[in-house]
Amino acid sequence: GNVWEQYSNKVIDRMNNPKYLGEFTEEDAKKRGLKLVVADFGSEACGDAVRLYWLVDPKTDKIVDARFKSFGCGTAIASSDMMTELTIGKTVDEAMKITNLDVEKALRDDPNTPAFPPQKMHCSVMAYDVIIEAAAKYKGKNADELRDNEIVC
Ligand code: FES
Ligand code: FES
Known about the structure:
Blueprint: H1 9-16, H2 26-31, E1 35-42, E2 49-57, E3 62-70, H3 74-87, H4 92-95, H5 100-106, H6 121-139, H7 143-146
Antiparallel strand pairs: 1-2, 2-3
Helix pairs in contact: 1-3, 3-5, 3-6, 5-6
């Protein structure tokens, strides 16, 4: 069928108008008494990349605010935007439990219809991987040791 129809309205809205596209600086973090975390992840599948910014409250480990930047395709932008939103208000440990499958589900218009075609699933995997990179930076750990959720790509 028509490729266009394989994308949910949520994906189309967020790729055209992401809500959390942007960045935070050390200045922003200092002003609010929060810790800045900046993490990158690049996809081996397509060479695209995403950068995630968190402002974390060091007393509670809670992600108070978040932004992202992307070199990715439309699905990557929509997935990164949703992932960024899902991390806000969670602790770093809670955020680590978010997978690309959660992101894809959150982007569905209808619970039984995939948000994007299966060959774009790897674009959403970056959204999971960059969370782990950010969590590793915050904890001062190695990202590969923290990566244990099941992902589908
Ligand atoms: Fe797409 Fe793994 S990232 S195959
Ligand atoms: Fe590279 Fe989608 S094709 S992130």
